[in-house]
Amino acid sequence: MNNLSQQLASIENFPLHQQRFLSQLIQHSSFNASFSAAQVATLLSEQPNIEQLLTDLVPLAQSYSVSPISNFKVGAVALAKSGAIYLGANMEFFDQALNQSIHAEQAVISNAWHHDETQLTKIAVSASPCGHCRQFMNELVDAGALEILLPQQSPVTLASLLPLSFGPKDLGVNQNLMASDKNNIANTNADELIIQASNGAQLSYSPYSKSPSGIALATKSAVYVGRYAENCAYNPSLSPLQSALIALHLANDKISDITQAVLVELKSAPVSQFPTSYSLLAQLCEVPLKHQRV
Ligand SMILES: [Zn+2]
C-alpha cells in the first residue's frame, strides 16, 4: 500500500460525510498533515466533541509512521490554540544511531510550529508519551496545562505526567518553544536556498546554547525548511534536519527526491548540527549537505 492508500484506509471508521470531506482534503496535492480551523469547524459540525475528533484522527497520524526498526507505529494529533489540528508520527532511520529517531510528539509539534502556531492545548497520542517526549513537550507555552489524550483514558495534563519537572525556568529562560523571539541572522547571501535556510535559523529556538541553526532541503517539487528546537535537558532537542525531514515526509514528498541541502549556522556558535546532520543525510540520499556559516 502506498502512503495515500494507507492514509485513506485509516479514516474508514469515520461517518460517511466526514470520511468524504477528509478524503477530499487528504487527496489534495497541497495537503501537509494539517487541518485549518475552518476545516476543523466543518468536521465538528457532524460530531461536536473536539476530544473525540482528535482521538479519531490518531490512526490517520499513525499512517505516516516510518518505523522500519521497531515496527511500532506512533501517531500524535495536536490541537493548536488557533483551532487548527496537526498530525505527526514517529520516524526511524536504518543504519543510524537510535538517537536520530523522531518521536510522534516531536513531529506534531514541529508540524504546528512550521505553520506558525505558537501554542498547543491538547495532544492525542496512540500510546503513552515516553519520558523523552514528556520532557520535549515541557518546553512549550503553558506546558503543564497541556492536555494529553490517550486511548481508553480520561484526559490528563502534562504536569500530572511530569511531576517535579525540570523546565526552561530552571535554567533562567523565560522563552518557550514555538513562541520565542526571532534570532538575529545576517542574510546577505544571494543563493535562494541559503536564504531559506537562514530563515529557518532565524526562527529556530536555542535559548540554552545560543546556537541558532536552520536547514533547507530542496526536492524536485518544493523546499522544506527545518528549524532547530533545543531542549533544557539538551538530549531531547530536535535538529533542523530532523525538523525538515518531518515537513518533507508530512507533505508526502520523497527523501530520495532531495536535490540540494544546506545548513546555516553562526560562525561563533558553540554547538553545531553539521556532523550528525551530514551523516544522517548521507545515509538517506546521495546529496551532500552544504554548511554555510554566517
Ligand atoms: Zn517519545
What does this structure look like?
- With 294 residues, the chain is of the alpha+beta class.
- The chain folds into 2 domains: 31-166, Cytidine Deaminase, domain 2 (3-Layer(aba) Sandwich); 192-293, Cytidine Deaminase, domain 2 (3-Layer(aba) Sandwich), CATH 3.40.140.10.
- Helices cover 33% and strands 16% of the residues.
- The protein has helices at 3-9, 16-27, 37-46, 50-56, 58-62, 104-114, 131-137, 158-161, 192-203, 240-250, 274-284; strands spanning 34-35, 75-80, 85-89, 120-125, 147-149, 156-157, 213-219, 223-227, 258-265, 290-293.
- A 6-stranded mixed sheet has the order 1-3-2-4-5-6. A 4-stranded mixed sheet has the order 8-7-9-10.
- Helix 6 (104-114) crosses helix 10 (240-250).
List keywords for this structure.
294 residues, alpha+beta, Cytidine Deaminase, domain 2, six-stranded mixed beta sheet, 11 helices, 10 strands, 33% helix, binds zinc ion
What gyration radius follows from the Cα positions, in whole Å? 18 Å
State the helical fraction.
25-40%
Beta percentage is 15-25%
Mean pLDDT equals 96
Bound molecules: zinc ion
CATH homology-level superfamily of the largest domain: Cytidine Deaminase, domain 2
Distance between the termini: 44 Å
- Number of E-type strands: 10
Which parts are unreliable, with pLDDT below 50 for 5 consecutive residues or more?
A: none
Instruction: State the domain count.
Output: 2
Give the name of the CATH architecture of the largest domain: 3-Layer(aba) Sandwich
Strand order of the biggest β-sheet: 1-3-2-4-5-6
Order of helices and strands: HHEHHHEEHEHEEHHEEHEHE
Count of alpha and pi helical runs = 11
CATH class category of the largest domain: Alpha Beta
According to CATH, the fold-level topology of the largest domain is Cytidine Deaminase, domain 2
Structural class: alpha+beta
Overall 3D form = globular
Largest sheet: 6 strands, mixed
